Amino acid sequence: MTANDCFMNPNDLIQQTAEIIVSSKHVVALTGAGVSVESGIPPFRGKGGLWEKFDPLEVAHIQSFMRNPERVWRLLISEMKGILADARPNPAHAGLARLESLGKLKTVITQNVDGLHQLAGSRDVIEFHGNFAMLRCMDCGLRVKTVDVAMTDMPPRCHCGGIYRPECVFFGEPIPMQALDRAQMAASSCDLMLVAGTSAVVQPAAFMPVMARQSGAVVIEINPEPTPLTGSTSKYLVRGKAGITVRRITDEVEQMLAARR
Ligand code: OAD
């Protein structure tokens, strides 16, 4: 961030971000829980975050799940199932999908497991931490839709008797190989990375903007709060909620593209 960027007002930063998007050839977005907050899904960290209520090592670590799947299902997963089932895309998801359909955004790398980018119409989405839409039997490997599994028995079981687990990544597990490969490829080949709604503290996801920057890309953040990337990896932070900010940036991009025709 340059000294001048620090003093620019948010409207100018929105305009500047739209100009950079229009002049870029390969734009990638990295999103986190913050983009789904306005869809009613709580973030993990900060005020009202899930980790205020639960200890992540107790409810989100693979060893806790293997030791006591019933407890993890009851405490966290069944609650998440209810929240995610009701959630609908907000203007942040819709704006990113619109940027893709305008030909200005290639790929979304998301740490979210809620499927809202796809529901909003984004087609190229890398689910870095897996997704919650599918469950997998830990014994026979059968995959089923989460919505099709009754939560009457805890933990829910497959007809073979095995326990179902969600297809999301628990702490202590590796990132799915294909997602990691594709994300690294996207980060190292983009010329602009938009980083929206992530605290950028969980690795290796938080390394993707660093990789983009090291490969010569411009990194721009959208977040109400600064992150460890702010002032170092990112050129600047557009301070604000993702919904209104992404919508305004996308409106500007659309107008600039229309004016060129
Ligand atoms: P966090 O909960 O760590 O961070 C959410 C970020 O969103 C913070 O930087 C907030 O300032 C910001 N935020 C809040 N409301 C916002 C809004 N309306 N618009 C834009 N930004 C907003 O979520 P992640 O960074 O996604 O991993 O967390 C990364 C990983 O940690 C998650 O994928 C999950 C978690 O533990 C696993 O479970 C493996």
SSE order and pairing:
Layout: H1 3-6, H2 10-23, E1 27-31, H3 34-37, H4 50-53, H5 56-59, H6 62-67, H7 69-86, H8 91-101, E2 107-110, H9 116-120, E3 125-127, E4 130-137, E5 143-145, E6 164-168, H10 177-189, E7 192-196, H11 207-214, E8 218-223, E9 236-239, H12 242-260
Parallel strand pairs: 1-2, 1-7, 2-3, 7-8, 8-9
Antiparallel strand pairs: 4-5, 4-6
Helix pairs in contact: 2-12, 8-12, 10-11
| Small-molecule components bound | 2'-O-acetyl adenosine-5-diphosphoribose
Q: Tell me the fraction of residues in β-strands, as a range.
A: 15-25%
The domain tally reads 2
What spatial order of strands do you see in the largest sheet?
A: 3-2-1-7-8-9
CATH names the topology of the largest domain as Rossmann fold
Corresponding CATH architecture of the largest domain: 3-Layer(aba) Sandwich
Order of SSEs: HHEHHHHHHEHEEEEHEHEEH
Q: What are the segments in which pLDDT stays under 50 over at least 5 consecutive residues?
A: none
What is the residue-mean pLDDT, rounded to a whole number? 94
Rounded to the nearest angstrom, the radius of gyration is 19 Å
Distance between the termini: 33 Å
Number of DSSP helices?
12
Largest sheet: 6 strands, parallel
Query: What is the overall silhouette?
Result: elongated
CATH class of the largest domain: Alpha Beta
Number of strands: 9
Q: What is the CATH homology-level superfamily of the largest domain?
A: TPP-binding domain
- Class of secondary structure makeup: alpha/beta
Q: What's the helical proportion of residues?
A: 40-55%
